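Risk register update: the risk of archive-format incompatibility is retired. Evidence:
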Amino acid sequence: MTDLLYTDVEESLRSSVRSTLQRALDDGLPARLADEPDADVSALWRALAEQLGPAGLLVPESLGGVGASAREAAVVLEELGRTVAPTPFLTSAVIATTALLATGDEQHLPALASGERTATLVLPWTARRGARSPVDGSAEPVAGALGADLFLVPTRGEGGGASLRAHGRDEVDLEPIVSLDMTRPLARVTLTGAGSEIASGAAADEAVDAALAAGAALLASEQLGLAQWCLETTVEYAKTRVQFARPIGSFRAIKHRLADLYLLLVNARAAARHAAGTLADGDDDQLVSRATARAFCSDAAVHAAEEALQLHGGIGMTREAPVHTRLKRAKADQLALGTPDRHRSDLAVLVDLPAS
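Archived output:
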């Protein structure tokens, strides 16, 4: 049975990440990025990388990493989701790193593990397992591309052969794309150089599929952290916002909505933890747990953000309140790495449910 509880090491990691984010992240930064998309946010990632080393969590110690597992990465993503921090952890330290690990790469991983460089997998952010870049050498929308140093490009040639190639920043053209969530900017990536092949054939396909699977499974933890912030923030607001000479949290209708949201969070945590645990253990249940977590947590995060916005009342509708940044991230995450409907369809096949 997969253990869903957090270990002491994971809780210690959570505490360290949260305190570092509190020191390094300007509370107003996520909201300002809508008006200042070119703002330099690299200092936040450098602070995390230098103080805690999250960039190398999944990388073996022999290559300069920490040698941890998906469970620890999931805890980091919960904290990043709470703050909607603009960092390349998911795109570089999870997805791109997993692809390189699957190919046995030793050339690029040390630099990624130290946080000195970041990488991205050049596929549309909506892609699921089995996706490949188009033959014309361009892809959009790609997450994590604007600040990346290394671009991993999965292609399939005219003969049908698969290849995974590494391109430097000087071998691509980047065109920013306006996105709903500017804390995770998107771009159109067009190849201008040949790059170097790091895997071909079945090995390339397996590396890309492993990367997308890891990204999808751990994205559920980011959604969990976001939803947890929405609940905690709304509960605190309900304690202090007074209406008719009473805190609004004393009204039965508000209590019921917050209680329902708490129960939703309990289920979301179980689903996200199970997905991270089965991924870490290489469990045969990871296909089912990933599809379940993504289908459930995607909708749970959006619902939590919507409830937070509504229960904050008029202030929740303003840009001055931070709730809108969580709603934007939740909605963007809902479409990333496969929509809930696509994951539910995958789940139906996995558990032998008849097609509708």
